Structure formats: structure tokens, C-alpha cells
């Protein structure tokens, strides 16, 4: 069933049809009293479920920042599902721990990050931001003699947080989950590409976390981390590079990240530009002891296995063998394949931008990575309608956005599966839909 799904996904409409959505009512039954044959259960799942999936792995899905899934990474997920390992420590899963260690080493190397950094395997950038910032919170307060694990935040020395005005919502969510409200944030204005203006950084101190970003979710632009670190004055500099940090894996795009490697902690998602299946977020920290202090869990019954315990570096206790999928993606691509994928998708974004300009669109961003934001000089409402029309055509999927006060359509070319033909077909569909919005 999965094989057939994958073999036909590239020819299917990207958006889900109304019929497929209506057919989901087939699931609105009472829970069966008697057991069902597992094959019958799966057949029902496939018959009603598969048509109701957006074809995000098809090569013509450009919404949010959604990579596809590399064959080796998908195969690894299927195999690890059969293994059903809990990568809690090396007593419960020697292979899970081993491949997390190998993948971590390869990741730090291919991303050009300090080799002593810790790598925590979490569900996504949201939890990776949480993990890194928990480490930062712990380290900053510990420096002032305040053990946040014992005493919490009531009465604690006040943390300062400096953030770019274009910080991703999930970084702010991570902050609020850590008991640091958004009211404390000292906002830094951004330029027209969404980059933090380091000249307007309030003077940081050792009590400060600075939230920087590599890869703005609309424009793809990155904050000038080198300049920020220069002015950090002992502050902890955190970089949310959920998709953008993968640009570090290519000689062509690495310069866009502007000194990213000198920060204290970083976040990147396997399930975005690396094209692993979902729930492959990575929390990377130059100060492993701080993350360990914030995340370690001890109890007498846990004294099994060696010291290498993934459970002590991430929020989750029981969890799957995510490192295996990351390892499989990196192993199957190799260094050359990874940089080639980053370059190829970035070139697709260039082609898309050039084609849009030819059709009369104004491309609002400098296309520095895989993101394109384009606008038409029309009254409000056109972008949502144009995006919906293209979605309904089945040819491609992208969404509307608002960028620097302008209504726009937005593309993220993040899938290994996207071909030249996919880009052309998308441009053709846009040319058709454009008439529908009166341009
Ligand atoms: C996608 C994204 C996130 C959130 O990542 P999840 O994996 O969905 O939790 C955070 N920051 C940026 C810049 C992103 O693009």
C-alpha cells in the first residue's frame, strides 16, 4: 500500500479533493466491539486515508517549509518502526544510541559547528528551541548562584531576552513554556529582508539571551550572527536555523548564514531541508553540561546502561530512534549529495522567481536560499484566491502571506523530489490562475 502510494503521488493532485474529504466520514463509526483483522484495518486506512493526504512528498508542494522524505530516511523509519526501540539509553537500544552518536558527529562536521557540542534529538524546532533555551536559562541563573531546578523562577534574578522582530513564533512559544514571558523581550528592528539590524542591538550582558535566526520563514534571510556575537558581551546567543542552517552544508550558500558558527546554541530540523520524515528536530549546544543540567532525569531504576543517555539531553523520556533516520539521510546523500540538494532546491527557487518576474510579479525578497515571496499590484484578497485556484487545479500547493505590509504568495522549495518540470508546471498553473484574479 505504501509503495503504491509513493509510486502514484507524483501524478496525483497535490491538494485533497472534496470527495476525499467527504469520504473521511467513513471513519465516523463507533469503536468496533469485536476485533478486526489487521489487514482489513489497514485496507480501510489506505482506502479512505491515503486520498485525504496533501501530496507533500510530490515535488510540487511549496507551502510552509515542508521537505519530502528521502527514500533511505523513509526506509529507516519503516525499519525502526519494526524495531520499536525506545532510545532512552544504551541498555534499551544500543543501535539507537550508537547511530545518534554517529549522526551527531557527522552533523556537527557537515554543518561546521564546534565538535564538542551536544546534539539532542527532539520532535522539531519548537522543542529544540525549548531544549537549548532551557540550557541557556539554567546556565545564566546558575552563574548568579540561582539553581532554577530547585527554586524555579519565583524571585529569581531577572533574565533579559533580546530578539529580532522577525523571530519565529515557536521560539517565543519555547520562551513562554520556560516561564519567561514575552513582555521581557527587547525587540530589535529588522531590515526589509527580515534581518536583525545589529546596530540597534540593546547593550547585552551576561544575564541576556539573544534570539537570532538563520533562515527567515518568508524571505530565507539570516541575522548577522557574527556581528551579534561581537556585541554579545557575555550573552548567550541562540540561533533558530530550523531550515536555514542546512545552508551551512553547501559552499555556495554557507556565507548567507553570516557567522552562525560562533553562537552558543543552534536549532535545525531534519524534517525540513534534510528531507527526513517528521519529528526529527535537533537541539545543538556548545555547552553540553548546561543542557544536561536542565534535562537530566535520575532515579534508582534508571541505573542501567552506560553514561550515554539520550534521555538526559532532551525533554522526552521514552521516544523513537530518530537518530537512525538522520543517519540514513546523511549516509545516503553523502556530503556531496547534501550540498547538491541544498544548491538544487535553491536554484529551483531562482527559476521560480525569474518565471514569476516574467509574468509581471514583483519578487519581494532577495532569493538567497530556497524561499520566494512574490506580489502583484492588486487589491487585497488576490493572493489567497490565486493560491486557492492553483491548489484547486491540483498542479501545485503554495500559500498566501503578508510580507513587510504587502500581500504576497510564498514558496519554499524544500523537497529533494522537486524537478525542473515541477517548477515549470507550477509556473504554468500560476499563469492560468493569474487571469482569475484579474491580472
Ligand atoms: C518551521 C520553523 C520552526 C518550527 O519548527 P517545528 O519543527 O515545526 O517545530 C521554527 N523556526 C523556524 C525558522 C521555522 O522555519
Automatic annotation (TrEMBL):
Task: Look up and give the organism this protein is from.
Answer: Leisingera methylohalidivorans DSM 14336
Gene Ontology BP, a term: carboxylic acid metabolic process
SUPFAM superfamilies assigned to the protein according to its UniProt record, in alphabetical order = PLP-dependent transferases
A molecular function (GO) term: carboxy-lyase activity
Q: Which UniProt keywords apply?
A: Decarboxylase, Lyase, Plasmid, Pyridoxal phosphate
Q: Indicate where the modification N6-(pyridoxal phosphate)lysine is found in the sequence.
A: 272
Q: Which cofactor does it need?
A: pyridoxal 5'-phosphate
Q: What is this protein called?
A: Pyridoxal-dependent decarboxylase
- Of which family is this protein a member? Belongs to the group II decarboxylase family.
Name the InterPro entries for this protein: Aromatic_deC, PyrdxlP-dep_de-COase, PyrdxlP-dep_Trfase, PyrdxlP-dep_Trfase_major, PyrdxlP-dep_Trfase_small
Amino acid at each position: 500500500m505504501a509503495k503504491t502510494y509513493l509510486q502514484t503521488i507524483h501524478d496525483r493532485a497535490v491538494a485533497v479533493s472534496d470527495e476525499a474529504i467527504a469520504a473521511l466520514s467513513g471513519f465516523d463509526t463507533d469503536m468496533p466491539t469485536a476485533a478486526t483483522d489487521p489487514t482489513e484495518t489497514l485496507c480501510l486506512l489506505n482506502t479512505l486515508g491515503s486520498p485525504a493526504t496533501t501530496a507533500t512528498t510530490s515535488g510540487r508542494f511549496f507551502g510552509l517549509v515542508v521537505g519530502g522524505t528521502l527514500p533511505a530516511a523513509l526506509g529507516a523509519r519503516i525499519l525502526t518502526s519494526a524495531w520499536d526501540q525506545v532510545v532512552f539509553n544504551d541498555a534499551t537500544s544500543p543501535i539507537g544510541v550508537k547511530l545518534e552518536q554517529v549522526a551527531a558527529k557527522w552533523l556537527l562536521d557537515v554543518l561546521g559547528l564546534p565538535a564538542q557540542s551536544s546534539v539532542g534529538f527532539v520532535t522539531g524546532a519548537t522543542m529544540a528551541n525549548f531544549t537549548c533555551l532551557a540550557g541557556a536559562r539554567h546556565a545564566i541563573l546558575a552563574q548568579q548562584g540561582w539553581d532554577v531546578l530547585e527554586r524555579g523562577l519565583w524571585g529569581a534574578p531577572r533574565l533579559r531576552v533580546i530578539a529580532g522582530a522577525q523571530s519565529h513564533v515557536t521560539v517565543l512559544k519555547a520562551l513562554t513554556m520556560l516561564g519567561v514571558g514575552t513582555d521581557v523581550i527587547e525587540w530589535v528592528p529588522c531590515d526589509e529582508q527580515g534581518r536583525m539590524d545589529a546596530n540597534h542591538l540593546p547593550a547585552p550582558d551576561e544575564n541576556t539571551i539573544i534570539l537570532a535566526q538563520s533562515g527567515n520563514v518568508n524571505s530565507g534571510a539570516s541575522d548577522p550572527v557574527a556581528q551579534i556575537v561581537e556585541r554579545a558581551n557575555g550573552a548567550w546567543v541562540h540561533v533558530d536555523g530550523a531550515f536555514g542552517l542546512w545552508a551551512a552544508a553547501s559552499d555556495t550558500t554557507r556565507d548567507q548564514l553570516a557567522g552562525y558558527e560562533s553562537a552558543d546554541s543552534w536549532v535545525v530540523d531534519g524534517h525540513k531541508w534534510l528531507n527526513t520524515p517528521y519529528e526529527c528536530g535537533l537541539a545543538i549546544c556548545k555547552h553540553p553540561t548546561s543542557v544536561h543540567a536542565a534535562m537530566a532525569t535520575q532515579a534508582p531504576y534508571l541505573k542501567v546502561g552506560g553514561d550515554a543517555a539520550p534521555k538526559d539531553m532532551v525533554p522526552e523520556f521514552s521516544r523513537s530512534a530518530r537518530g537512525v533516520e538522520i543517519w540514513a539521510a546523511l549516509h545516503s546523500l553523502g556530503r556531496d549529495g547534501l550540498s547538491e540538494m541544498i544548491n538544487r532546491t535553491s536554484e529551483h527557487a531562482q527559476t521560480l522567481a525569474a518565471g514569476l518576474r516574467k509574468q509581471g510579479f514583483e519578487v519581494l525578497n532577495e532569493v538567497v536560499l530556497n524561499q520566494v515571496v512574490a506580489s502583484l499590484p492588486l487589491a487585497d484578497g488576490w493572493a489567497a484566491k490565486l493560491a486557492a485556484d492553483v491548489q484547486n487545479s491540483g498542479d501545485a500547493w503554495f500559500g498566501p502571506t503578508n510580507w513587510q505590509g504587502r500581500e504576497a504568495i510564498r514558496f519554499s522549495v524544500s523537497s529533494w523530489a522537486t524537478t525542473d518540470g515541477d517548477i515549470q508546471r507550477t509556473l504554468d498553473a500560476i499563469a492560468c490562475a493569474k487571469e482569475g484574479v484579474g491580472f
